[in-house]
Write a structure and sequence with these properties.
There is one protein chain. This protein has a four-stranded antiparallel beta sheet with strand order 1-2-5-6, with no helix packed on it. Helices cover 39% and strands 12% of the residues. By secondary structure, the protein is an alpha+beta fold. It has one domain: hpI Integrase, Chain A (Orthogonal Bundle). It starts with a helix and ends with a strand. It has six helices and six strands. Helix 4 packs parallel to helix 6. The radius of gyration is 17 Å and the shape is globular.
Length: 168
């Protein structure tokens, strides 16, 4: 997923029973302040993505913690139903995510400073290819890089995935 897609993800887009997340919108920041939900980059960007079971479990924990935080904040919490929100319930600004969380992780992992948050999208697709049996429709959720990964992942055989991608 692109950063503007996962930062706009709402809890109503996540189906823990089906272990999927559906991309329906993007987060757009206005110059000079403010934000709104926009359309995905392309028609193919509207998609339902299978999620690993471990990620579904982590999202469940995250939702519980977010709910506790929301109760503490009370009426001051802006309930936008966002999966990834500030402590006030507003969308997370991408540059804050990078500066406060991503860069420190990159530094601790001793990875190149040129590694970008956006690069995780490609890294995730590569890791999924090497970790699970995957079908082509699953890979298309990761964008145009999928064809290249299929050709270069020689150690992975592509078979039917138990959770195929669904186009919306």
């Amino acid at each position: 997923m692109r950063p503007e897609e996962y930062l706009s993800l709402k809890w109503s887009d996540v189906d823990p029973k089906a272990e999927t997340a559906t991309v329906r919108r993007t987060l757009v920041w206005r110059k000079g302040g403010g934000w709104y939900f926009g359309e995905p980059k392309t028609s193919r960007s509207r998609r339902t993505i299978p999620l690993p079971t471990s990620l579904v479990a982590a999202l469940g924990d995250h939702r519980r913690k977010q709910g506790e935080s929301r109760l503490k904040k009370g009426a001051d919490y802006q309930n936008n139903d966002l999966v990834f929100a500030t402590s006030e319930g507003t969308p997370i600004l991408l540059r804050n995510l990078v500066r406060r969380h991503f860069r420190p992780v990159i530094t601790r992992a001793k990875l190149s400073e040129t590694f970008r948050l956006y690069d995780l999208r490609h890294s995730c697709a590569t890791l999924l290819l090497s970790a699970v049996r995957i079908q082509r429709s699953f890979l298309s959720a990761w964008g145009t890089l999928a064809s290249f990964l299929l050709l270069t992942a020689t150690r992975t055989s592509c078979r039917r995935c138990s959770k195929p991608l669904q186009r919306n």
